[in-house]
Amino acid sequence: MSRTLFISDLHLSEERPETTRAFMAFVAGPAQGATALYILGDLLEYWAGDDDVEAPLAASVCAALAGLADQGVRVFFMGGNRDFLVGEGFAARARLALLSDPCEIRLGDRRVLLSHGDELCTDDVGYQAYRRQVRDPQWLQGFLGRPLAERKAFIDNLRKQSALAKQGKSEGIMDVNREAVETLLRTHGHPLLIHGHTHRPARHLHVVDGVECERWVLADWDDSAPYLEWNGDTLAAHRYRPVQPQAH
Ligand code: MN
After folding, report:
1. Which of 3, 17, 147, 182 lies at a C-alpha separation of 20 to 30 Å from 226?
2. How do residues 168-215 score in pLDDT, each as one tens digit?
3. Number of structural domains, the chain?
4. CA of residue 190 to ligand 1 center, whole Å
5. Nearest to 82 by CA among 139, 16, 9, 25
6. Cα 233 to ligand 1 centroid, rounded to whole Å
């Protein structure tokens, strides 16, 4: 049986070891024997550049993914808003293939569009302005030219600002904009859409130009491992709960 798995929004960091444990358990568990694993962004809480690939957490994540690749699981990665600086250096180390956002694939006879999802949150005007800035090739070149420690300090400051800004934003602003979703579906010929980012796992139906399009939103991770699975016939959301070590 062919199995294709989709995950996003793990936000792995040294500060949340329980999620790293869930990821390692997922790699050793549900990911075993899969045909493909698609990581749709925000695997990492932040990424300052591929010259940080020797950092302990990054190195162990890359080793786990490379281990899957060794077993014949094809691993794909699309950058999220937190880790869009993941590049060829990380990809080589993790033995994964980088995808652009959005990206079209096929599952059986279904056309499927993959995206991280942050670009669809058009109601958050402040975020979209920031997004345009940091995705600008010239800005990026300047940023990546700075020393790693300086980049990390910059991102750390950004994370603090973002946490503060979120407190002042309404729930609605941080969800996808329906029109932006429907425009994307129309542009790509009414595919099924899978995305993450909003941390609002659900299956939605959009009727676009009279065509029914499914939209699956992936869940964010905690000490368990939520994933979407295509079993060759249907899509279903699962949550793998690794057995936690017992306290004595
Ligand atoms: Mn995100």
Report:
1. 182
2. 888 888 899 999 999 999 999 999 999 999 999 999 999 999 999 999
3. 1
4. 23
5. 9
6. 28
